[in-house]
Each structure stands twice: as structure tokens, then as C-alpha cells.
TrEMBL record:
Keywords: Chaperone, Coiled coil. InterPro entries: PFD_beta-like (IPR002777), Prefoldin (IPR009053). Belongs to the prefoldin subunit beta family. CDD domains: Prefoldin_6. Gene3D superfamilies: 1.10.287.370. The keyword Coiled coil applies. It comes from the Eukaryota. One of its GO terms (molecular function) is unfolded protein binding. GO terms for cellular component: cytoplasm; prefoldin complex. It comes from Wickerhamiella sorbophila. It holds the Pfam family Prefoldin_2. This is Prefoldin subunit 6. The lineage of its organism: Eukaryota, Fungi, Dikarya, Ascomycota, Saccharomycotina.
């Protein structure tokens, strides 16, 4: 027996939201990795003396860069990534809440359908 259209639509929406949640969690993991890499770079910069030569890769070319400028760029990048992580975490919370609501709605509709079927069977056997 196939699901009624309304129930099938809810199940499809639930599956789509699960996929969205998985993608968003993956995005957060990617951002966390980038943040950790930036923290490692920052630690390396902190260990260098002020006259150390730092190079930045722009395309296939290594370009000299001032340590203070490079340090500032890494700090800005870390701030930017942290803001992105906060935004993604908000989106994850929203998706989780919505997912829980859809699951509850789907459960309720399935129970209603089951009760209707039981009532029909009882009416048919009477």
C-alpha cells in the first residue's frame, strides 16, 4: 500500500530537510577546518621575529609581504570564518527545529491514518 499524497509530501519534505541539515553540518566542518588552519598559521607568525620574510602566493607567484600585514590578514580571516561558523550554527539550529516539527507532524498524520484504517476495518467487519 502506498502512502496518501499528503503523507508522502511530508515524508519528502522531511528527507529534503535531512539532506539540507547534512550539507550544513558539512559546511560547518569545512569552516572549522579552515579556522584551525588559520590558527596554526597565526601561531607560526607569532613565533617569527619582526624581520622575518613572509611570502604570499598569488596565483603561481610568491610575493613578499610585510609580517604585520600578513598577521593582520590572518586575524581578519579568522574573524570572518568565526562569523560564518556562527551563521551556519544558527542555520543548523533552525533546520533541526524544523526537522523535529516535521517529524512530529508526520507521526501525527501517520497515527491519524492508522486510526482511520482501523475504524474502516471495524466498520467493514460489523
Amino acid at each position: 500500500m502506498s502512502l496518501p499524497p499528503a503523507l508522502q509530501e511530508l515524508a519528502n519534505e522531511l528527507n529534503k530537510q535531512k539532506q539540507d541539515l547534512q550539507q550544513t553540518v558539512g559546511e560547518r566542518q569545512r569552516l572549522e577546518t579552515q579556522l584551525q588552519e588559520s590558527k596554526i598559521v597565526k601561531l607560526e607568525f607569532d613565533q617569527l621575529d619582526d624581520e622575518a620574510k613572509i611570502f604570499k602566493m598569488i596565483g603561481p607567484v610568491l610575493v613578499p609581504q610585510d609580517k604585520a600585514e600578513a598577521d593582520s590578514n590572518v586575524s581578519k580571516r579568522m574573524d570572518f570564518i568565526q562569523k560564518q561558523i556562527a551563521s551556519v550554527e544558527d542555520r543548523i539550529k533552525t533546520l533541526q527545529t524544523s526537522l523535529q516539527e516535521k517529524q512530529a507532524e508526520l507521526q501525527l498524520k501517520a497515527q491519524e491514518l492508522q486510526q482511520q484504517m482501523q475504524q474502516q476495518q471495524q466498520a467493514a467487519s460489523s
